[in-house]
């Protein structure tokens, strides 16, 4: 049974690789990619969420779509090594970012505005603590 599962997963994996055009699908997003996709520009999920939480009756569907992205990309942040500064310290901050992203997503799924918003505040105020030690100039 174990053997069968193994064979199946090898086939599934090869199929995925074919569809991905030979690219290494398992490679985590780089820090730069995560930063750009989530934070950069007026159209970034960070800004969209900020606006979405201001509504009296938030649009939970779009908040959930956005918060999911924070979890997916946030998971990759601690998989990277710090480009600058103490590596263990970076991991700690990156893990904290991921934890807050998960709390944001959990709150969004439950449509719990105080919980989701509190977690979002932690995400959106985490920037400087990490940049000051770990962002190359
Ligand atoms: C755990 C650490 C960490 C946290 C938290 C973090 N950043 Fe970053 N950020 C970095 C690092 C490291 C870089 C530099 C990446 C590189 O140049 O390879 C960076 C780069 C960036 C960049 C430049 C991307 C580019 O175009 O090159 C932007 C914009 C940015 N961060 C925004 C933010 C914002 C906004 C927040 C908070 C909501 C945030 N970051 C939180 C570590 C972090």
UniProtKB/TrEMBL annotation:
GO BP terms in the entry: electron transport chain
Lineage top rank: taxon: Bacteria
Pfam families tied to this protein: Cytochrom_C_2
This protein's UniProt keywords: Signal
TM spans (from-to): none
Signal peptide positions (record): 1-20
Gene Ontology MF term list: electron transfer activity; heme binding; iron ion binding
Record-given protein name: Cytochrome c
Protein's organism: Paludisphaera borealis
